[in-house]
Amino acid sequence: MRKKLNISVIGTGYVGLITGAGLASLGNKVICVDIDEDKVGRINRKDPPIYEKGLKELLEKVVPNNLKATTELKNTINETSVTFICVGTPSRKKGDTYFKQLDDVSKEIGLALKEKQKGHLIIVKSTVLPGTTEEKVIKTIEKFSGKKYGIHFGAVMNPEFLREGSALDDFFNPDRIVIGSTDSRSLKSARKIYENFKCPILEATFKEAEMIKYASNSFLATKLSFINEVGNVCKRLGINTNVIAKGMGLDYRISPKFLRSGIGFGGSCFPKDVSALVFKATEVGYNTRLLRAVLDVNHDQPIRLLELLENTGPLKQRKIAVLGLTFKAGTDDTRESPSLSIIKELLLEESELHIYDPMAMNHVKKLFPHLNYEKTAQDAVNNSEIVLILTEWPEFKKVDYGEKLVIDGKNLFNDDKPKNYEGICW
Prior knowledge:
6-stranded parallel sheet; 15 helices; Rossmann fold
């Protein structure tokens, strides 16, 4: 039986908290580190600072016996033998990646290791461009610790493949685990952490492991933009895109996954990762024509819904229900959500918006405090003339839409569609 480890996880966003709670549930002693005192307090009270199915129940089981949170990074490094770096790496407007959090954490880890006598394994789980682990993380730790990678401390790149809304299931039942390093001892230690997971474990170099993450997300984003492009053509030809997608998906080489047309992808991964890969490619002198097109199609996809809406007449002072604020169901994450861009356009048209989302209204109220936020989806529909479905929350299927026009941007209905129904590209 594998020896249980003392593990630290730096960063308590989706990746960090899911990773920490998951590892704690397997019997490891885990300390989560974050500079946000509110997040730390909530975790220690078993109150997850993010919404994710099953996370609250898991925290109830592992806190405080196997998991606790703190703002003290230095002491935590001394108390643990493995550290997962799970801080955010957001995109700038140009597409390049903002690395300040990663740089700061790498420096702090280096300063902590300077006084530590025992060896330590650093596992980078943050999404970083090829070359980052070696050129930024390892070199920064070496600089501030005075120690050498491969001798005094180990390092591994271990990309995450968690889907928001299904993150815990993805943690416990992964398709694959990728570990990248140039140090055999580091790879061996990382393998031991995952030895009870029943999936392929792929060993790679740092750059290969980093690139696998970007390539995977870029491919999935490409499938989504592809089916949306096909859907836009099918809409004009009077063809049901869903039937086309079903026929395509029966080919095992294609598969039906990520062939559901709609208003485009959002969230913290696809837009950011595709943009970052395009930027990096440009930096090294290559024009990524396909990936640029993927982003262009995705950027324009919400416009298809607005065009349908404009065909119904002037939008000024029209009462419009907006059902759904998150980029997908099962999360409270509104980052890069197409819903927000549609709301902005409708506000420019001076429409009267009635908003409902089961998880994200408190977040969006900070951006748009003057909108009408309804207690239920039915209330939003009752107070409106037209309904826009912008997130595929299952509860929206149970709403009584009556004779009102429903424009569906997320392909929510297969059967039992509302009486006056329009899909944006099917």
